Amino acid sequence: MEYSDQLEQRLLLALDGAIAQRGKNKGMLKAKCPPMGTDAAVMWQALMYYANPYKVSLFSLVFHGMADDSFKDACFAFAAERASVLPNLDRDRVALTKMGAW
pTM for the whole thing? Predict the structure, then answer.
Protein backbone atom coordinates (compact mmCIF):
# COMPACT_ATOMS: atom_id res chain seq x y z
CA MET A 1 0.00 0.00 0.00
CA GLU A 2 1.34 3.41 -0.92
CA TYR A 3 0.87 6.26 1.54
CA SER A 4 1.03 9.98 0.93
CA ASP A 5 3.90 11.79 2.63
CA GLN A 6 1.62 13.47 5.15
CA LEU A 7 -0.17 10.23 6.05
CA GLU A 8 3.13 8.35 6.24
CA GLN A 9 4.53 10.93 8.66
CA ARG A 10 1.36 10.75 10.75
CA LEU A 11 1.62 6.94 10.86
CA LEU A 12 5.26 7.08 11.95
CA LEU A 13 4.50 9.60 14.69
CA ALA A 14 1.63 7.40 15.88
CA LEU A 15 3.94 4.37 15.85
CA ASP A 16 6.47 6.34 17.89
CA GLY A 17 3.74 7.03 20.47
CA ALA A 18 2.63 3.39 20.62
CA ILE A 19 6.10 1.93 21.23
CA ALA A 20 8.11 2.36 24.44
CA GLN A 21 11.06 4.65 23.73
CA ARG A 22 13.13 4.08 26.86
CA GLY A 23 13.53 1.75 29.77
CA LYS A 24 13.74 -2.02 29.87
CA ASN A 25 10.86 -2.41 27.40
CA LYS A 26 12.33 -0.09 24.77
CA GLY A 27 11.14 -1.14 21.32
CA MET A 28 8.15 -3.11 22.65
CA LEU A 29 4.52 -2.02 22.50
CA LYS A 30 3.50 0.04 25.49
CA ALA A 31 1.79 -1.99 28.21
CA LYS A 32 -1.26 0.29 28.18
CA CYS A 33 -2.98 2.14 25.39
CA PRO A 34 -1.90 5.76 24.95
CA PRO A 35 -4.51 8.43 25.79
CA MET A 36 -7.76 7.98 23.93
CA GLY A 37 -8.35 10.35 21.07
CA THR A 38 -4.73 10.40 19.93
CA ASP A 39 -3.19 8.92 16.79
CA ALA A 40 -0.91 6.83 19.01
CA ALA A 41 -3.97 5.17 20.58
CA VAL A 42 -5.34 4.23 17.16
CA MET A 43 -1.97 2.79 16.12
CA TRP A 44 -1.58 0.92 19.43
CA GLN A 45 -5.02 -0.67 18.99
CA ALA A 46 -4.19 -1.69 15.40
CA LEU A 47 -0.83 -3.18 16.36
CA MET A 48 -2.24 -4.90 19.43
CA TYR A 49 -4.97 -6.47 17.27
CA TYR A 50 -2.22 -8.66 15.80
CA ALA A 51 0.10 -8.81 18.81
CA ASN A 52 -2.39 -9.65 21.59
CA PRO A 53 -6.06 -9.31 20.62
CA TYR A 54 -7.19 -9.78 24.23
CA LYS A 55 -6.00 -6.24 24.99
CA VAL A 56 -7.93 -4.56 22.15
CA SER A 57 -10.83 -2.34 23.16
CA LEU A 58 -13.83 -2.53 20.85
CA PHE A 59 -15.16 0.76 22.20
CA SER A 60 -11.90 2.46 21.34
CA LEU A 61 -11.97 1.09 17.80
CA VAL A 62 -15.53 2.32 17.25
CA PHE A 63 -14.75 5.72 18.79
CA HIS A 64 -11.68 6.23 16.61
CA GLY A 65 -13.49 4.97 13.53
CA MET A 66 -16.05 7.71 13.89
CA ALA A 67 -13.37 10.37 14.22
CA ASP A 68 -11.06 9.51 11.30
CA ASP A 69 -11.94 6.34 9.45
CA SER A 70 -9.25 6.71 6.77
CA PHE A 71 -6.46 6.99 9.37
CA LYS A 72 -7.78 3.98 11.26
CA ASP A 73 -7.83 1.97 8.03
CA ALA A 74 -4.27 3.07 7.26
CA CYS A 75 -3.15 1.98 10.74
CA PHE A 76 -4.72 -1.45 10.30
CA ALA A 77 -3.13 -1.81 6.85
CA PHE A 78 0.23 -0.79 8.34
CA ALA A 79 -0.19 -3.37 11.12
CA ALA A 80 -1.35 -6.11 8.74
CA GLU A 81 1.81 -5.69 6.68
CA ARG A 82 3.84 -6.39 9.83
CA ALA A 83 1.57 -9.01 11.40
CA SER A 84 4.25 -11.70 11.50
CA VAL A 85 6.55 -9.75 13.84
CA LEU A 86 3.96 -8.04 16.02
CA PRO A 87 3.45 -10.94 18.48
CA ASN A 88 7.10 -10.46 19.48
CA LEU A 89 6.45 -6.84 20.47
CA ASP A 90 3.96 -7.51 23.28
CA ARG A 91 5.73 -8.57 26.45
CA ASP A 92 2.67 -10.40 27.84
CA ARG A 93 2.33 -12.43 24.64
CA VAL A 94 6.06 -13.24 24.69
CA ALA A 95 5.87 -14.41 28.33
CA LEU A 96 2.79 -16.57 27.69
CA THR A 97 4.43 -18.09 24.61
CA LYS A 98 7.56 -18.96 26.60
CA MET A 99 5.38 -20.67 29.22
CA GLY A 100 3.53 -22.58 26.52
CA ALA A 101 0.18 -21.03 27.40
CA TRP A 102 -0.30 -19.27 24.06
Answer: 0.86
